[in-house]
């Protein structure tokens, strides 16, 4: 499961890089630029959710480690 999450996050970052590259170097119409922007923002939101989930898991693990060190 975690490997799948990491792979999805890496795929999303690659998609974002591709979108940025396309927007910087291709002569896109305003409509195509807007579509690329929307797609990029959806990916950014997905990445943020995934990163938030990982941060919460790290906080829980850190708290468990601190509890174990006090025992």
Keyphrases for this structure?
single chain; 71 residues; mainly alpha; 2 helices
Strand content: under 5%
Beta strands, count: 0
| Main pleated-sheet profile | none
Overall pLDDT score: 89
Q: In terms of per-residue confidence, which ranges show pLDDT below 50 for 5 or more consecutive residues?
A: none
Order of helices and strands: HH
Query: What's the gyration radius in Å?
Result: 18 Å
Helix run count? 2
Helix proportion range: over 70%
Q: Whole-Å distance between the termini?
A: 31 Å
**Global outline:** rod-shaped
User: Which class of secondary structure composition applies to the elements?
Assistant: mainly alpha
Topology:
Elements: H1 2-25, H2 30-70
Helix pairs in contact: 1-2
Short note summarizing the structure:
Helices cover 92% and strands 0% of the residues. It has helices at residues 2-25, 30-70.
What does this structure look like?
The chain has 71 residues and is mainly α. It is 92% helix and 0% strand. The protein starts with a helix and ends with a helix.
């Amino acid at each position: 499961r975690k490997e799948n999450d990491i792979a999805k996050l890496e795929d999303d970052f690659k998609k974002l890089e591709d979108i940025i590259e396309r927007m910087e170097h291709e002569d896109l119409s305003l409509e195509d630029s807007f579509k690329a922007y929307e797609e990029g923002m959806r990916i950014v939101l997905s990445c943020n959710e995934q990163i938030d989930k990982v941060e919460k898991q790290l906080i829980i693990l850190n708290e468990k480690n601190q509890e174990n060190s006090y025992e």
